[in-house]
TrEMBL record:
Gene3D superfamilies: Single helix bin. The lineage of its organism: Bacteria, Bacillati, Cyanobacteriota, Cyanophyceae, Nostocales. InterPro entries: PSI_PsaJ, PSI_PsaJ_sf. It is found in: Cellular thylakoid membrane. Its main location: membrane. This is PsaJ protein.
Length: 49
């Protein structure tokens, strides 16, 4: 019974870690995208002469 209780504890800890990793990874992805678009803007809004 003790082993199953430990498995439930580790599973709940794993479930609480997933949203943290998701928020961090999405923040890094969108920050990278924003910085890239700052240095290399879309040609639709900044047409070449």
């Amino acid at each position: 019974m003790q082993k199953q209780n430990e498995q439930v504890k580790y599973f709940l800890q794993y479930l609480s870690l997933i949203p943290v990793i998701a928020v961090i990874s999405i923040s890094v992805a969108f920050s990278t995208w924003a910085v890239f678009n700052y240095f290399f803007p879309d040609l639709l809004f900044h047409p070449m002469p």
